[in-house]
Amino acid sequence: MASDAGTARAGHENPRPWHAATSGRTELAAALMIFGGVMAALEGISAIAKDNLFVVTRHYVFEFSLVGWGWVHLILGLALVFAGVAVLREALWARFFGVTVAGLGAIANFLWLPYYPLWALVLIAVNLLVVWALCTGMHREADTARTG
Hints:
Elements (H helix, E strand, L loop, with lengths): L23 H25 L17 H23 L3 H20 L5 H31 L1
Helix pairs in contact: 1-2, 1-4, 2-3, 3-4
């Protein structure tokens, strides 16, 4: 009997280098990026509008104007939403971009702690969960592709 163990499968002959299969973790990361990005963008808009929601601290080491922090959060939020949508569309570059932007978002929210502590902690947790889900999703999907 002939065996097909040595032949290449049709699905793996020409892998698409710009696309990657998604797992549940990757889709979770994309959903969290979209959620976290929208929340960061709304936080940024609120800060740009100089809303009375935020506590303005004195003598903080990383003190920017409230409007400056608002622009930082707005830009990072929009970048997170963009990356989340791209991850859902299975773009491989979006995973790396998402890890980078989520990491920057976690750092920005850590520096934002004195202005709105509870919400900053929530967004730090969301951003770190995104980094974890994207990184572990890549390894699991690569292992599945090798054995599949």
